[in-house]
Amino acid sequence: MSTSLLQNTPLEDIPKIHARLYETVRSGKTLPLAYRRKQLLQLAHLIQDNVKAIEAAELADLGKPALEVVLNELGPVVQACLRAVKHLEEWAEPEKPPVEEWRSNWDTTIYKAPKGVVLLISPWNYPWILTFNPLVGAIAAGCPVALKPSESSPACSALIAELVPKYLDQDAYIVVNGAVSETTALLDLRWDHIFFTGGGSVGRVVAAAAAKFVTPVTLELGGKSPVIIDSDCDIEVAAKRTLFGKLQNNGQLCVTPDYVCVPRAVLPQFKKAISSAYSQFWPNSALHPSSQWGHIVTPNHHTRVWNLIKNTKGEILEGGHVEPDKKKIAPTIVTGVSLDDPLMENENFGPVLPIIEVEDVDEAIDVVRSRPTPLVLYAFTNNEETKQKLLDKTSSGSLILNDTVTQLAVHEIPFGGLGESGYGAYSSKHTFDLFTHRRSSINVPTEFEPNFAFRYPPYSPESYAFVERDVMAKIPDA
């Protein structure tokens, strides 16, 4: 599908869409749980009814194999919908927190209220799951949504714009397609929450726009996610799982392993193991038609990644081949990479894996700490002391041991960054919570009035003595 098939939303329509969504909020239409449940089931049907069309769109935009589409995007969205339907009443139930005895009859309650209208700006690399998984949480929370998919994945964005109004309420869930002008027009408006997934430079623009209205923002920005190899781990498994994480969507994944720190004592073994895994994954070369190896999203991105490979001072261990006319680059493993190498300047976001030689885990930790906080830190180790050291001495959105990218399937834990890799977290119930305002409430009975006598003027010594007790409460020894 060509970019010409992607029709941009007219700029003059964007304020009308904004007004329509806010009218839906005022109407209370999205509040009933029955309404939310229906929309969630409709979203699941949207996926199930259109699997082949979605696979074709992903193939056009990214050359993504059908198995990766179903495994990494479509299955998780359907399961997220069904999980939200199953637990919706539980998630939305008001909470009655434990309180001190003297306030036990104040009806202390935390209500789960929708934050309001959400602007969801999603990326091109995983257009379905990174658009619809946040949408699941917003629907469950009762929030209308303006969805802005990426112009860099035109086939998927056009299909999203076609399907959403067929399955979901057109007053509450509206797709806005376009590029910089349309995104700028959206950011010029006030929203109740903005959810953005993408690069750090655009993330800063989004955050600045939101700040004008003091709008809460979730930023998922990626970064250079490292892999640390401990000399005590299963080197063969570590190499295979690291390479698997790198090959997903041609390395165009926010949590893909960006570089590997390997102790020099096991470096020869690791290089041999990752070369062995490479030949298992692509026995006929990754660029062979039978390999189901995708392509880089645009010619500009292809040129950027290819220049990284050409300019590295490291040694290519595997790969390094390119087909510019097809926007293809073979998965490329580079050894002997120094910390000032071009491959180590920014997030590679492509099928290039630099290997950094270090003395030990301690030096690897120093490397990680000298760089911006990553979205995820991977480590392969069987040593509890090493695990604790990583917890104590490093920072990252997530710490994942002995595998790569699989954390995305663990919906019970929150997913999100820290510092330069973003802020805010989501996944399943965590997404519902993200778009929910915890609205506190108490109801103080009038018959409690005699107990408030101390707080009213004129203040007396007896009143002072009564309130001073809290200040002078006994403090236990440290």
Describe it for me?
There is one protein chain. The chain has two domains: 230 residues, Aldehyde Dehydrogenase, Chain A, domain 1 (3-Layer(aba) Sandwich), CATH 3.40.605.10; 184 residues, Aldehyde Dehydrogenase, Chain A, domain 2 (3-Layer(aba) Sandwich), CATH 3.40.309. Helix 3 packs across helix 4, helix 3 packs antiparallel against helix 6 and helix 4 runs parallel beside helix 5. It has 15 helices and 19 strands. It has a seven-stranded mixed beta sheet, with helices on both faces. It has a six-stranded mixed beta sheet with strand order 4-3-2-5-6-17, with helices on both faces. A two-stranded antiparallel sheet has the order 1-19. By secondary structure, the chain is of the alpha/beta class.
Short key terms for the protein model shown above:
Aldehyde Dehydrogenase, Chain A, domain 1, 19 strands, Aldehyde Dehydrogenase, Chain A, domain 2, alpha/beta, globular, 6-stranded mixed beta sheet, 478 residues, 7-stranded mixed beta sheet, 2 domains
Beta-strand portion reads 15-25%
CATH superfamily of the largest domain: Aldehyde Dehydrogenase, Chain A, domain 1
Uncertain spans: none
Rg to the nearest angstrom? Answer: 26 Å
CATH architecture of the largest domain: 3-Layer(aba) Sandwich
Structure class: alpha/beta
The neighbouring-strand order within the major sheet is: 9-12-13-8-7-14-15
Distance between the termini: 67 Å
* Shape designation: globular
What fold name goes in the CATH topology slot of the largest domain? Aldehyde Dehydrogenase, Chain A, domain 1
Query: Which CATH top level class of the largest domain fits?
Result: Alpha Beta
**How many domains would you count in the coordinates?**
2
How much helix, percentage-wise, in residues?
40-55%
The number of helices is: 15
